[in-house]
Fold:
Amino acid sequence: MKPFTYERAGSAQQAVAAAARTPGAKFIAGGTNLLDLMKLQIESPSHLIDVNGLGFDRIEATPDGGLRIGALVRNTDLAADARVRRDYALLSRALLAGASGQLRNKATTAGNLLQRTRCAYFYDTNQPCNKRQSGSGCAAIEGVSRQLGVVGTSDACIATHPSDMAVALRALDASVETIGTGGRRSIPIADFHKLPGSTPQVETALAPGELIASVTLPPPVGGRQIYRKVRDRASYAFALVSVAAIVQEDGSGRVAVGGVAPRPWRVEAAEAELRRGAAPVTEALLAGARPTAQNEFKLLLVERTLDAVLSEARS
Amino acid sequence: MTTNHDEPHGLSRRSLLKAGAATASIPALAAAAPATSRLPALPRAPDAPALMQVGFTVNGQKHQLMLDTRTTLLDALREHLLLTGTKKGCDHGQCGACTVILDGRRINSCLTLAVMHEGAEVTTIEGLGSPAKMHPLQAAFVKHDGYQCGYCTPGQICSAVGMLGELAAGIPSHVSDDLAARPEASTVEFRERMSGNICRCGAYSNIVEAISEVAGLKT
Structure:
């Protein structure tokens, strides 16, 4: 790890101001991904602003019947919250499918959204990686790409976003509330994660020094909520493919997919096909996919996983 | 057997190492002190380590430490407080050997900074029990042979303590059938909930037996 100075922020305003005046500063909350990356010098902030004391650790009802989740709510607490388990089971299920008990006890809601890809070439500092070092090239495209993205990728980067939670939030139409030097704003989850294009190092819509305060869920939509994760071992592994589905009694619904793209992957137009089954939905969902020879299997795996999910929803 | 295996000749390898570490640090401190007191305060060079004071309680004992900000909680426990029961395996949160209980919750101590835990309460394997008065999980691991080399064992036991607490608090898991119901103790639940602790010797079935006995599960 490179040396860094450290401060505990007492308020959001203080944290945002410190980030604005300190080049090379980063916020730290759970730290489970940031410290991992700092040890490998993939991240090397010169200053850390600890935001754990800001009080964004509550889950509150919103006036319209939704739920506002503080940025610092730990993954364990979010998954175990009675309202989330009852009204947003998809979110509980996605959280519980990710990481380990120890990590979920530390990892925060905002940090989960901001975690970096687990692409092996991003992690290996001996390899070129456009996300880690802009313009250095992508070793993954011609490399071992079994785990990597099939859709929404670019010639510069085929990394996937690793979060399970974000896939559920995408299906639930969540929004992300932030605080920056210019004030507060709300970002729809659909716009939060960026596609790589020619700038894979730009991963989110956040401006430098902008701080996530909360994530808001709209009022519950009901339906059968199922999160199915397919991975190389039964627990504690990233998804090859995951499917988050909300299926209503009339057969309509929503589908978001993880493990296939640089962001939680949802194509609203594909959901019109839900009553016709998994194949037409998948075709529309993965239109324009550019898999590698090693991860082409994911196209069929998405269809079959979705088929299993739809069967379960109907049962 | 009445022999204390740790200290067969009144001096163990571990206490010898501790003594060595303590004496090694004294001359370094003595040499540094006059130099710093004579020099005017200079701005910190960009690449120089930053030092900070932090205080927390470990196994009921309060500690004040002056640490490089980069020091993980794991390194603070092992290298500064010489509590070497907590192990460093992967140092990246993938193996669980470093699991400790922080403010009542199990965490990976390798993935958190010591300076982030002002006022915190930490319990390590040394705080759970002693050879003379073992924690029920420690005793059960011995009884069921829940290890082979033993390196992952402190993390397994701290994790199991935290895990049983989570189950008792009604926190669901990936294998809990009904999110609306309280999760029930079962070997399936234990296996899922302990997946953050890797045992390269493969003592998993015995670990599950040890945990099952303490949880009162009929196996």
Remarks:
- Chain B is about 35% helix and 10% strand.
- Residues 49-127 of chain B form a domain with the Ubiquitin-like (UB roll) fold (CATH 3.10.20.30).
- The beta strands of chain B are 51-58, 61-68, 99-102, 105-108, 121-123.
- The longest helix of chain B spans residues 13-38.
